[in-house]
Amino acid sequence: MKGRILSGFFWKFGEQISSQLVTFILSIILARLLTPNDYGNVALVNVFITIAEVFVVSGFGTSLIQKKDADETDFSTIFYISEIMSIVIYGVIFFIAPLVANYYNSKEMTLILRVFALRLPLSAFNGIQEAYISKHLMFRKVFISTTVSAILSGVIGVIMAYRGFGVWALIIQYISNTIIISITLAMQVKWHPQLKFSWQAGKPLINYGWKILATGLLGTFFNQLRSLILGKVYTPADLAYYNRGLRFPELISSNVNNTISGVLFPVLSNYGSDLNKIKQGLRRAIRMSTFVLMPLLFGMMATAKQIILLLLTSKWIAAVPFMQILCMSCVFDTVSSENIQALKAIGKSDVLLYLELLKKPLYLILLLLGIKINVMAVAWTMVLYNIFAVLINMSPNRKFLKYSFKRANTRYFPSFFCFSVYVHSCIYYWQNNTALIYYFWYTSIMWWSILYYSSYYFQYECTQGSDELF
């Protein structure tokens, strides 16, 4: 089992890195060929599609992973339910598309939204495929399909952008990516839908899954609400700068978080009712994610301006402050993610839904306050919200896993403190000693890296074998 887990981490991380790296490089090329307005329009349309996809890929697929003895009947039953939902939701989007276009004063958005939504039925099929793969820890197959689809769809998008298709280059890139992933997974995975359907088998899965679906829907809706309001109150270019600033820290945090969470959830689910093993898996996941993420995110925060100028040119310079602020936001997000996976694994989908209902009023209040000020204030509200969300998401595990705030905080506070000081030092010297930029950067990163990893080694040696300190 240990070998399968390590293999799962390796291939899942490889999948995240390869696909994100290819997508990142291609997005830089597309950003040079397309305008911020093109990205802003696609960002608005993607809000509706992302929310719609929650209905077809979130919740029910998760229930298949969480159920320890899920069989072919379970998988086929959930597949048909997901496909029916995707077709119904596409019909809704098709008819509301003109209303959305009128709301944003963009006639072309009607056709864009209708075409973009065609990926929903494919996403439903793909969601069940990935649930089957995750349950059996066959992440090598996802690595192959994701990498191939990222390269081929990216090339299609670049060619179309170069030939002047504008916003349609991005739309076709998204759709072709989903199509290619589904085809390549179907060629590799033994599971295919069968003519089996059992309401008796599906009922407990739906009972667990609808709460996960509602939790995902709330989270996704409120996350996308930020883009919806920014796109309405401010310009598409403002939204594009915000999203581009978010894209860089998300590239790092999503890779690490998705790798750990993607393997952590099926592994913890296999432990069943052994809460001690689940607790051990959770604390190791938090240690691993913070160990990797914090130096990367704080380093990106310190070098944001140089990264933007080097990769995207000066026309995207307005994205720099958003990138710095949202790097800080993503730091707190990773700890929340692991705690949520543990709750999902022990079957507490009702608790997850309760947590979302508890957090979202504050999210809405902060968002509305930020909107009244400016776009920068909206970014700062995300930092405040994620700090609050960490505290809320950790609280149930004090009861279910005996995993307290104090023990959890020993996993990431030293690294947070070290790199906070490092970033502020970097920014101060870079602003006041231009000639010493590179010398300071190389020497400071060396010394702070030594301090960071030494603190982790010391902490590990002091706490090794003592469960009370985790």
Plain-language structure description:
This protein is mainly α and 470 residues long. α4 packs antiparallel against α6 and α17 packs antiparallel against α18.
Question: Which helices and strands occur, and which strands form pairs?
Answer:
Layout: H1 2-33, H2 36-57, H3 60-66, H4 72-103, H5 109-116, H6 119-135, H7 139-162, H8 167-188, H9 199-233, H10 236-270, H11 275-302, H12 304-312, H13 320-345, H14 349-373, H15 375-400, H16 405-409, H17 413-432, H18 437-463
Q: How is this structure best summarized?
A:
By secondary structure, the chain is mostly helical. The chain is built from 18 helices and no strands. Helix 10 runs parallel beside helix 13.
